[in-house]
Amino acid sequence: MNLRAAYLLNNTNALDDDDLDAPDHAMTDTNQINPSAAALSDVISCLSDYDPEALPVEDAQAIIRRFIRPIHAVEKVALRSALDRVLAEDIVSTINVPSHDNSAMDGYALHGTALKAGQDIALKVVGTALAGRAYAGAVAENECVRIMTGAVMPAACDTVIPQEFTRDESESGITVPAGAVKAGDNRRLQGEDLKAGTPALGKGKILKPADLGLLASLGIAEIPVQRRLRVAFFSTGDELRSIGEVLDEGCVYDSNRYTLYGMLRRLGCDIIDMGVVKDDPASLEAAFRTACENADAIITSGGVSVGAADYTKQMMAQLGDVTFWKIGMRPGRPMAFGKIASNGKQAYLFGLPGNPVAVMVTFYFLARQALLHMMGASAVEPLPMLRVVSPTAIRKRPGRTEYQRGILSRNGDGVQEVRITGSQGSGVLRSMSEANCMVVLEHERGEVKPGDLVNVILFEGLV
Ligand code: AMP
Ligand code: MG
Fold first, then answer.
1. What is the pLDDT of residue 35?
2. For position 422, what pLDDT does the model report?
3. What is the pLDDT of residue 33?
4. Which residues contact 421 (CB under 8 A, 6 or more apart)?
5. Which of 112, 237, 431, 459 could form a disulfide linkage to 421, CB 3.0–4.6 angstroms apart?
6. What mean pLDDT is predicted for residues 209-232?
7. Residue closest by Cα to atom 8 of ligand 1
8. SS3 state at 455
9. Helix axis angle, 312-319 relative to 281-294, nearest 10°?
10. Taking a C-beta distance cutoff of 8 angstroms, is the pair 273, 259 a contact?
11. Distance from CA of residue 281 to its chain's centroid?
């Protein structure tokens, strides 16, 4: 039995193995990250004015980005299973799509040279071309072929007049009114979607529905993708109870493992839920070691704040190259970041704060991008932001980035506006649940006055 299995058996809070995604057929799998050679201190030394006690969000993001290295492990999966996975190799088209010139409309295929400026022309209909059933005969200049959308263009024909533009239509002939079409109209060219030998999709792309369709149009059944990132997580804090346990006085149910589960699943990670870990050195050490030996990244919540009277920070520091920050952000000030090692294996560590909203905000704005980078995704640019009017004032202090929970809607005039959800306390998870966006108030910014524009990042989009 491997360590992870042993751990899962001994920890009733943890998920059953059945709850984890079954791994796809593995081609190559190092089971290990390709850790950065540099020490965290080397990466940090590149930054001027580094102050771990007051670190701007952008600096924390930059350090994380420079320290993280992508995994290198490729597996082949069936086309449908490639949805939302990271493409591991460039895909070059081996065929032209479409393979022939074909019609974009239902109508009549004709010679563009037959069209005469300012004149109607009469054409004889000599046959029919259907999608998948070409017209094999010759077509003279005074002739045309009835053609359906997607049918191969008959030899020498380069133009299609849509059926509804013709006049005097009969089985034997049509009239093409003057100026109804130009030579070359309504014809899709061979290779216009993709030319044989040209790159169709680049390595690192997260495959979306359109990409699956594109790959299908190339006839590719198996897709090389990066193996899923393995992320282990656990909660720390003696006050935490798992669902199903009695809620003793002063205790709270552990919600962070469920928000983390949701966010990690959405990113397409394999997750190892290690439950609540008791605040004693032996339990914490065992949990960190198990996580490290079985995952590429570890996410913990709780125990990293200034006054934390627990062993979490101590154990993180003992097992690895970990730094502790107070980030200029709200919510989510305290955070630990680095890399820990156990029995020759290494894993990146994100020690998130304990407050439920702070966990989500630090995950979205500090861990998410790093995990995408580890997954080998190329599009890890900042998320698109909208500039939207805030009809109300929002309290904000310069010197920290604030992530307020917002509801984007339309006012009576149909204009988009954003309002903050009720209480913005970092423990008020309802504010996150009610929101449909985050309002990001920049580091330097002060109070928002009614009518000011603010930056908004949407939770949902077309995917
Ligand atoms: P800490 O960062 O450990 O000081 O925790 C800050 C606050 O978040 C405390 O009120 C904790 O009870 C709460 N908290 C920590 N972990 C969790 C969790 N997993 N689920 C819900 N609340 C939590
Ligand atoms: Mg705690």
1. 57
2. 83
3. 52
4. 405, 406, 407, 430, 431, 434, 435
5. 431
6. 97
7. 355
8. strand
9. 50
10. no
11. 37
